Amino acid sequence: MFRRRLRLSAVAGACLLVAASAATLGAPADAAPADDPTVQVTIDSFGPVAPRPGQPVVIKGRVTNTSSVTFNDPQALACIDRTRLASTAAVDAIPTEQNTPMNDRDSCSNLTNDPQTFKPFDQPLAPKQTVEFTLTVPWKEWRINDQTGVYVVGVTFRGEPPNSARIMAGRARTLMPVAGTTPLTRTVDTALVIPLRHRPTQLGGKNFANDSLAQSLAPTGSLGRLLALGKAHKVTWLLDPAMLDEIRQMTKGYVIVGQNGQTTQGAGVTVATTWLKELDATRAAGNQVVLLPYGDPDVAGLLDSGEPLKKLVADARKATQGYALPATSVNVPPSFTNGLWLEGGAAAGRYLGAASGGFAGASSSDLNLVSSASWSAATRPVLTTTPVYDVTTPGPDTSVRTVIANSALTDGGPDPETASSPLQVRQRFAAETALIAASGKGTSSVVVLPPRGWDTDGAATAQLAASLSLPWIKATDVSTVVASNPRPQAVRAPKAGQNNGVLTESHLSSIRDLDAATSTMQALLVDENALPEVMTHALLRSTSSGWNGYPEEARHFTAIELGSANQQLGKVHLVNASVDRGLRKEIKVNLAGSKGTFPLTITNDTEWSVRVGIQVTAANRSDLKITPPQSAVLGPRQKWTPRITASAEQNGLIRANAQVVTAGGQSVGKSQELLIQASQYGSVGWVLVGAACALLFGTSFVRIYRRIRTERRNPTPAAEAAEASEVAESTDTADPAHDRPAANGVPEAAAPDASLKEGVGSKDG
């Protein structure tokens, strides 16, 4: 019985498992997932920007079904949060509701009394489908008062997913400033600063890495569209002078150097010429020009790296200070403002204090621009009246006059996912400035500066420029704003982390190599000021913050510039005539005696006069001692052959390296291997030679002394003895065979009939 029940239970369990599997496999594909399905709602048009009481508002946009289910009975509805925002702080505090499920977000109430405020769609909204909507909201439907303020309004999407009740599956909000019936108390002097920047593309002379700059200068490019804003609006240009130099070279003709070394003609001659003329036209119209440090360097990255890169910040500022801003028209003012632009962690006091001064020509009239987003919300300066402050920094100059750009004017919002859209930026700018205009009396000034990398196509900046025509806005430039605030208040500099640069460590290492080669070339020249400007400019371009996000282009640029610098250094080198199969071999020299000299020749194949020296160091011996010659000046295409004084204590082959150096000892180019053959007596040899000389001269002295003493004691016998000695010597040196003296003191061979005994020296002989 028990077994039967067990078999029935097993069969029932299997049936349930099969049924569950079949139910799973047979489920419809558009069944609602565990998470609520959502759609994307986008507001493309909102007008008027700041309605007056009584004006209807038209909202246009689209809904895209980004989920995997189909929504039945879809509709778009206008909504509003009726809490009036009366201050900029209240705008900053708008809740984003990012962590709240879409259907539970209730900060924007739907408007349903008037059929114009909602739009039912004719067909279900399928996955990936997009539908457009237009909603017209009569003023009375907002149900708000006529006071000046800002409201959060928007559009929601409602529909029925499968097996579910109607839900809110999407929402988009924006800010609606209301110009109330009470007149605003003041106007807002607004300086819009527009950066004109592009990453470096010029490799040197007419050689360019790519044609991206030309594409950007075209009327449809980002730089072309941004420049066009200056025709209709008063703006302040923030320019990188290195980019201006590149554009001027493009007008003269240029080529694009490919990866394989082949060149193609650049296509941007015409657009570059037109762009410069239009820039001059906006300058002639009175638009201020602020020039960045040459190359727009990564200030924080260079300063954090220490020397030698740290000095490049001052070099970039000095290059801009002495920059000549030419014009194609005589009506264009040649003046400009020397500026600095820091944001984020790079605006910390240690960077601002170091970069704002420390270079020749630094002046109190220089412009230091810093984004207010660099401060935390709790420590941020108040910017409703003036943007000019004295920022306290470490260092000798404890206070730096600084213009703080109000980052809230470009933040957009209130929803983070759509904050960067041009329409949201426009509405946020209008809302913030309207609240500033209504917040007090007297003069109010603001500076608007888009952050780096914020507006790649220029569309959002165009919306900012168009907003300068709002009734409470008075367009001006930065110089006017600074002049209107002669006695700014003090504020502490923002705090930041340890490292705040944007360039990679690999790129910084490449900059160090290029800086070393450039510095060596400058130290090599008799006149250091004769270093070609193209080399210093290439070094500064390599530090550009514009390389951020383009690591491969940065690597390519620095590699080419480093190769060019090393090529110039290689023109000052040792002459080596020993070549094997196209490769230079070792220079072979002989060193005779314990001390000697040998020649080495240096040639200068550059077009400048250089001062050079030679250093020789042993590679395999420690007993080689070199007395280096004094440095010498070589004119262009000249040679110099000094004699190197060397000494070695032992015989043998010495491997050494000869290096051309600057007057300060910096190595120039690659070293050249030497093979020195040392040939001299060792210490034992010198002892033997000394002992032999002592024995020779000692014996001679004894003999001479004895002879003199004998002659003094016995003068006559001594004379006879001397005569006998002479006869004996004559007899000993005579040739017995030929009866004549032997030639050169060497006996000749015996005559044929001579006795053999005489030839070998017999007992009687």
What percentage of amino acids are in beta strands? Answer: 25-35%
Mean pLDDT: 84
For the largest beta-sheet, the strand count, sense and barrel status come to: 10 strands, mixed
Tell me which oligomeric state these chains represent: single chain
Say how many strands there are: 35
**Structural class given helices, strands, pairing?**
alpha/beta
Low-confidence stretches: 1-34, 721-765
Question: If you had to describe this structure to a student in words, what would you say it looks like?
Answer:
It is a single chain. It is built from 19 helices and 35 strands. The chain has about 775 residues and is an alpha/beta fold. The termini are far apart. A hairpin with a 2-residue loop joins strand 10 and strand 11 (about 205-210). Strands 9, 12, 15, 16, 17, 18, 19, 20, 21 and 22 form a 10-stranded mixed β-sheet that branches. Strands 3, 4, 5, 7 and 8 form a 5-stranded antiparallel β-sheet that branches. It is about 30% helix and about 25% strand.
